[in-house]
Amino acid sequence: MSESFDWLPLFPLSQPLFPGLYLDLQIFEQRYIKLVSSSMRENLPFGICAIEEGSEVGEAGRLFSIGVEVQITDFNQLNNGLLGITVEGQKRFEIEETEVDPDGLIRAGIKYIEPDQDEPIPDSCSGLEELYTELRNHPEVNRRLPEVEKVNCVGLGNGLAQILPMSIEERIHCLSMNDAMDRLEFLIDHIQTLSNPV
Q: Are 165 and 194 in contact (CB under 8 A)?
């Protein structure tokens, strides 16, 4: 392993996770049981990356180069007997190189991305704020989104980019943006496209 990077074990998923958002995961593959056990025992983070090519199970696939460091916030045994965990997205990172363990677990040499500069939500984005509130009132969504009173531009953009229907490429585009207002403007355009399909 190169010493010039921070190294994180990765949990590949079909969709990305955004900073500040929560995600429930069901753990059943041995490599991820080992990853989660180590993370809980030593209070270490791991990374979530979206899969560009391949699947969540079996051999390691190709991943998008941007991901999010996560911390486990809760765990429990599910009704099916498997381990369930809740993770919270923390810092974004770029993958510089990867190595694959014998059991298929991917480890990435990463460089962290500076967090977006946050600021109050402008009046021009009040429609997004109302939409966020409506989505958060949905019983299947509300526990995944912070309360609207607790979010500014960054949280509003990340929450909507996580929840709104869009392609994985569009989500990755939002995750890759380094300006919170640019992300909100992209989401405004995206919502208009959803409302007025060609």
A: yes
